[in-house]
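Chapter review: from sequence to fold.
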Amino acid sequence: VGMVIPDIANLYQAGIARGAGDVLYADSFSLILASTDDDPEHARSQVSAMLGAQADGLLYGVAREDDEVLVGLVEEGVPVVLFNRTVDTPDVSAVLPDDQTGTRLAVEHLLSLGHRNIVHVGGPEDVSSTVNRLEAFEATLKSAGLAGSHGFAHRHIEAEGHRVTKALLEELPETTAVLAANDRLALGAIDAIRDSGQTCPGDVSVVGFNDMPYSDRFSPPLTTVHISQYELGSMAARLL
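The token string follows.
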């Protein structure tokens, strides 16, 4: 079974791969793992190599809107299960975290602490989790009579979290809280806050998403939305 993930350096993705691998191994399947840097062309070449190696099916974690690679898999009848992301393509199964509820809980937490100037550092614009979390972010603030600003990262990595947060802080210096689309973006956000001469959480609070391993050991420990990575991966493998 082939498994395509955005970035093996992301410990959240590693937890998903471990869950899938344990289920597959118990059923006498081998796991072929590819990390694509969330690049569609890289994904295309990796999927082609996996099918050339006679993979019986694919776990596909890099889906985007208008994903030509995924469309091709469906048309060819290759068994495929998405994880972490989904698309509008008919007849494709996916195992997903509850992005909207997780985001709502994170925003409500920040509101309960008294924050009223909250920004969102989202992922790539054409990814379902980005769309769902931004929708929940705006809806939760609207229900509180507030509005928030956001920016989009090109990849879920620290450098992008720093870039987007830096731009938001320059545009909106009254910002007191940042909700990041994942924990690596949150780490970049914390660096940007410190680079601006402010402290976290003294001046600006940060909340992440996914609860990747060791987030409790960051300085300061990171408040984050917990997703069971191992369970997500094992559910996707069982579904495939």
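Two observations follow directly from the output. The radius of gyration is 18 Å. The CA atoms of residues 200 and 220 lie 7 Å apart.
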